[in-house]
């Protein structure tokens, strides 16, 4: 877990990159009806803007309230690291799925021009994204990013 603002910034960039890349490919696959090289191309083309948007939402909108909820209702400073990781990750995934599902709906409406479907696309994307994002965050992305982060930046090496 990051220990200061600088570490949090680096960690957030790494986590957003990982989650947005995976979720972009997943969503494009869902909307195109299957995985193909076209999915890779479309997912990669939309990735840069999506990752910047996701990072801004994570850093400026979601992170503070999510950690506040986690520490107010579910964990405290003395809780085990594993419990804190699971609770904070879950508290981050829920609002990020809602926000990024809306972003995906906007992206789909821009491509198709069918703005009347925005609400339907958004609301149907939320459960589809949640069932992928939470397990991926807890089982793959979280452990992977934490391992890579700590191997690149051992504790105490990134100054506050």
Describe the 3D structure.
- The chain has 160 residues and is mainly alpha-helical.
- It has one domain.
- Helices cover 83% and strands 0% of the residues.
- It contains 4 helices and no strands.
- Helix 2 crosses helix 3 and helix 3 (81-112) packs across helix 4.
Rg of Cα set: 17 Å
Shape: globular
Q: What is the mean predicted local confidence, pLDDT?
A: 94
Please tally the helical runs, counting DSSP H or I stretches of 4 or more residues: 4
End-to-end Cα distance: 14 Å
Order of helices and strands: HHHH
**Class by SSE composition:** mainly alpha
How would a crystallographer describe the biggest sheet?
none
Q: Would you count the extended β strands for me?
A: 0
Question: Approximately how much beta-strand content do the residues carry?
Answer: under 5%
Binned, the helix content reads over 70%
Report low-confidence residues grouped into runs of 5 or more. none
Number of domains: 1
Keywords for this structure?
about 160 residues, mainly alpha, about 85% helix
What's the topology here?
Blueprint: H1 5-32, H2 37-74, H3 81-112, H4 118-152
Helix pairs in contact: 1-2, 1-4, 2-3, 3-4
In short:
This protein is an all-alpha fold and 160 residues long. Helix content is 83%, strand content 0%. It contains 4 helices and no strands.
């Amino acid at each position: 877990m990051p220990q200061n603002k600088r570490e949090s910034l680096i960690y957030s960039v790494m986590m957003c990159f990982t989650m947005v890349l995976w979720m972009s490919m997943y969503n494009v696959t869902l909307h195109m009806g299957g995985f193909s090289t076209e999915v890779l191309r479309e997912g990669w083309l939309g990735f840069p803007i999506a990752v910047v948007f996701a990072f801004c939402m994570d850093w400026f909108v979601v992170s503070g309230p999510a950690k506040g909820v986690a520490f107010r209702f579910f964990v405290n400073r003395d809780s085990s690291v594993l419990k804190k990781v699971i609770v904070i990750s879950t508290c981050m995934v829920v609002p990020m799925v809602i926000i990024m599902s809306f972003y995906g709906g906007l992206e789909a409406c821009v491509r198709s021009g069918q703005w009347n479907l925005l609400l339907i696309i958004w609301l149907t994307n939320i459960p589809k994204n949640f069932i992928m994002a939470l397990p991926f965050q807890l089982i793959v992305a979280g452990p992977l990013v934490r391992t890579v982060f700590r191997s690149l930046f051992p504790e105490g090496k990134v100054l506050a």
